[in-house]
Amino acid sequence: MISFKQLPIEAKAAVAAGVVFFSMMLSRSYLAEKLDFRMRRWLLRLQMALFANTLMLMGSLHVWRSTVTTFTRSSAASSFCFMLWKIAVFMFLALAHSSFFTLLFLVAEEPYFFSLAAYTCLGAYIILIFFLFTLGSVEQAYKFLAGRGAKAGTGNKNRTALKPVLAVLLTVVLTVVGLLNASQPPTVNSVEIPVHKLPSTMNNLKVVLLSDIHLGPTVGKTKLAMIVKMVKALKPDITVIVGDLSDAEAKIIRPAVEPLGELDSPLGTYFVTGNHEYYTSDVSNWFELLKSFNIQPLHNENVKIVSPKSTSDWFCLAGVDDIEADVLRYSGHGMDLKKALRGCSSEHAIVLLAHQPIAAKWALQERPDINLILSGHTHGGQIFPLNAGAYLLNPFFVGLYQVGQNTFVYVSPGTMYYGIPMRLGSRAEITEIILRSP
């Protein structure tokens, strides 16, 4: 029987990842009610950072072997330039691995340069792994189809050397493109949506949708102030924030949140939690902070949005807690649609705020009379090649969907980005939704 010491390092990393994952499940199941919020917050974040790093270790070994070990037998291996290259690859991998720990130590009003560099390396790491794997698969397929067997001639050696070079070049180009794309202000996307049973006096009501701002290691006060300025220029009747506003505790990042106090939509500004609010383990303090800025959290509850032209005309705006609260066993929280829609009948239009598209699907299965659901969470995949995974894992990916005759779902691609300051195959968006009365 093979002992742990005899296992290859990749297998050891996989075992370590399994152990960390098991500890996460154990903490969620048996320790959630026994630990105070502060201890739970640190334990959860530490476990997530360790889990991500143990998984990444397998990829990092492959990167090192592909970009460094492959060239150790070449004539350039003893050169000073090759030594610099090894140092660069090591620093790149070290920064990528350290990105997850910045949530524990480097969150402030504005991002630290180290955090931006670390998360940029993480984004480049994901792209590089994809191209190394893809090019390696193409190489193996070529060998198989060409019937070359296992013999390695000069041509094969050249192709083996070409693979990491091409992967690195593609990664550098896409990283620069992604950084430039994400550095641009969010695009304003105007969408007209017919809402069944919306009073005629509320025709053309303007709702501005924000989602996935992710205040934290790489998004700070300056970017939020820019978003608020753009929202105010649109002069919305209602502003809604559908989760993942922040990745940090309210007290730590409070100065960065202050621009939200300038939102002044006449019919109110509303907020529902996303999964990352529960990762902070600080939801109650976030609710209090948002209320101080006249932003109303909808904690499985609803409000009547009354027409400015007629007090007898209104529709029901409801919001549910994110489904991650149930997974984390977050006390007093969890998606409760019945509670959220209490008093909302099909006689009036119903608009629901639910962070995750899967929650939108569940809500429609239970209450098909909901007329409009506004969600986020997917980021439109944020960066290639994660787009494909986000598309496959969510029933609604991005944009407007019609479900049945009188129901629509709109999924925001996100107003900023999570961690990695890059966007590839997606664009940050502030959504201007014009409600139309049929």
Automatic annotation (TrEMBL):
Keywords: Membrane, Transmembrane, Transmembrane helix. It comes from the Eukaryota. The keyword Transmembrane helix applies. InterPro entries: Calcineurin-like_PHP (IPR004843), Metallo-depent_PP-like (IPR029052), Metallophosphoesterase_sf (IPR051158). The chain crosses the membrane at residues 12-30, 42-64, 84-106, 112-135, 161-180. CDD domains: MPP_YkuE_C. The keyword Repeat does not apply. GO terms for molecular function: hydrolase activity. Residues 205-380 form the Calcineurin-like phosphoesterase domain. This is TMPPE metallophosphoesterase. It comes from Copsychus sechellarum.
